[in-house]
Design a protein that fits this description.
The protein has 3 helices and 28 strands. It is mostly beta strands.
Length: about 375
């Protein structure tokens, strides 16, 4: 499997719309984001305490994370005028999170993306996973890491560690899998997400990712965001959004983001991969060799001037254009009472290719007993004058 390493030592680790609106900060200083109340995230879930944690740097960048699903609920970064704004969708309380978009801003495991019909064979043994995205398994099943409480440990003002052990047989996956994810805000205005896991007792399959819902303008839709993905091919999908096993060149198609293009420029194109979405929901094969940390995507928002560069050790990146945001309460009503309509955010999810366990020509997601899986995703924020 890619991103494997052996470590001699390692630590294994609703409020109403009116109330939500009143929470939206509108001070004389023109603050344009919600001050999240930690107390609204403090609750026991499945017998474990949930909380909201703050990490930050010396330049004013702030990230707030809850240990329910290891979710990022807020990222505050400046625009070209130095004004802080919130660039991820999210919610104001743990109750809203639990009734909201299932994947929003969560750390995804044990197996990100889709597994065809929830079936795979490993070392001659057949497995049937729970089906939660008929006819397939999505993002780890009915109760993947999106819906579990991680153990959290704040290391310092800029760093927090979250750990969770996937049990043998959990969601019908084989093997005990201790894991941890570390969130760190750097003084370069980057959010670094480092993750690792070990197959403790038997072979298993692993695919982790971060599922941030981003809008660099902080409001409206993301159709005017300029996107670049350094990838000459995608792994196309069928009508059930399962990869066919092919590598399809993007040149001459609406999928080509090798040069900056507005997300909305071709989002209604008469093209099979767009129709299946509907919109963008496909994995890109990043132009890279090996598992080095390299650029996977770049996004520019012209109005605010904010720039996001995503670096990753993973071979692919899933581009999702917020197709299933529908503006429905309570699921799609977030911070400040903001209604999240279709295309209110995008997700760029570095990961191994979807359904790799059933595609021998894809980079392997098999982790043998005693082996480690290790990876890193960096969201680096800047401005374009």
């Amino acid at each position: 499997m890619r991103n494997l390493a052996t470590f001699g030592t390692a630590c294994i680790i609703g409020s109403t719309l009116a109330l939500a609106t009143s929470a939206f900060a509108a001070s004389g200083e023109g603050k344009a984001y919600v001050d999240l109340d930690r107390a609204k995230f403090q609750k026991d879930v499945d017998g474990k305490p949930v909380d909201l944690y703050t990490i930050k740097n010396k330049k004013g960048m702030v990230v707030k994370v809850t240990n329910y699903g290891a979710r990022v609920e807020q990222i505050l970064v400046p625009d070209r005028h130095g004004k802080l704004g919130d660039v991820v969708l999210g919610y104001e309380s743990i109750d809203q999170v639990m009734n909201g978009q299932a994947s929003m801003n969560a750390f995804i495991g044990r197996y990100a993306n889709r597994v065809a019909k929830g079936k795979f064979t490993l070392n001659g043994q057949d497995y049937q996973l729970n089906i939660n995205n008929p006819p397939n398994t999505l993002h780890g099943g009915q109760k993947g890491s999106r819906f579990v409480v991680f153990d959290a440990h704040q290391i310092n003002d800029s760093t927090i560690e979250m750990s969770y052990t996937y049990k043998d047989g959990e969601e019908n996956f084989p093997g005990t899998l201790p894991s941890r994810v570390i969130y760190k805000v750097t003084d370069g205005n980057a959010l670094e997400i480092s993750y690792e896991a070990v197959a403790a007792d038997k072979p298993t399959i692993v695919n982790f990712t971060s599922h941030l819902f981003v809008n660099l303008a902080g409001k409206g839709d993301i159709l005017d965001h300029l996107l670049t993905i350094p990838a000459d091919a995608i792994t196309p999908v069928d009508a059930t959004l399962i990869t066919t096993g092919e590598f399809r060149p993007v040149q001459g198609t609406p999928m080509d983001f090798t040069k900056p293009v507005k997300i909305g420029a071709r989002i209604a194109a008469d093209y099979d991969q767009i129709k299946y979405g509907p919109g963008y929901d496909v994995n890109y094969v990043v132009n890279k060799k090996g598992q080095e940390l390299s650029l996977s995507a770049r996004v520019v928002e012209p109005t605010s001037g904010r720039v996001l560069e995503i670096y990753s050790t993973e071979p692919g990146i899933q581009f999702y254009s917020g197709n299933f945001l529908e503006g429905k309460a309570p699921r799609d009503v977030g911070k400040g009472g903001q209604v999240y309509n279709v295309h209110a955010a995008f997700s760029l999810e570095p990961q191994h290719f979807p359904d790799s366990v059933n595609k021998p020509n894809f980079p392997s997601t098999v982790l043998n007993a005693g082996d480690w899986y290790k990876g890193k995703i960096v969201y680096k924020f800047g401005v374009q004058k």
